[in-house]
Please model this.
Amino acid sequence: MKKTINILSITLLLSTLFAGELKLGSSIPLAEIKMMDISGKLISLNDVKMENGLLVNFSCNTCPWVHAWQDRYNSLAEESNKNKIGFITVNPNTLIRDRGEGLSDMREFAKKYDHDFLYALDKEAKLAKAFGATKTPHIYLFNGKGKLVYRGAIDDNARKPKKVKNKYLFNAIKAVAKGKNIDLAETKALGCAIKFAKK
Model:
């Protein structure tokens, strides 16, 4: 009997650990955990969330995909704030904190691209793991009730912004602000694999 219970417990634990990416309709995970922003302030996702929702962007400093989308970050933050949706970028690259992904590197990166939004350190990548995020960038948009309504990519052309045909995230932001359903709620996140620290 005890052996059966132990096997069941292990199975449940493994299914939780490897459940994969956060499902649509899920609530914001670890919303109360405080993270250090490049401003030196401790913030949580609950602190950032606004009336119409929250946009969480797992990003970094060293990924070419992130660099390609940089010209859209500020406009996305502006669009989010205009529509009363909180915006935060989170750096989960724990394995290479000493190789371009530390807090001081984040400050320099934000200054270089003239960022005007929160950029926080996911110190032990707890947030990324809870979300099931795998890439940088990797987008998660929650509505005013804190439910996940969009996940995936920013748009369909990182390298050539003038050739973008589908502005997935811009469209999702506008739909959420108006209380409408999102036409395309899931897209494939394109980017560099998150560098999780080895156990």
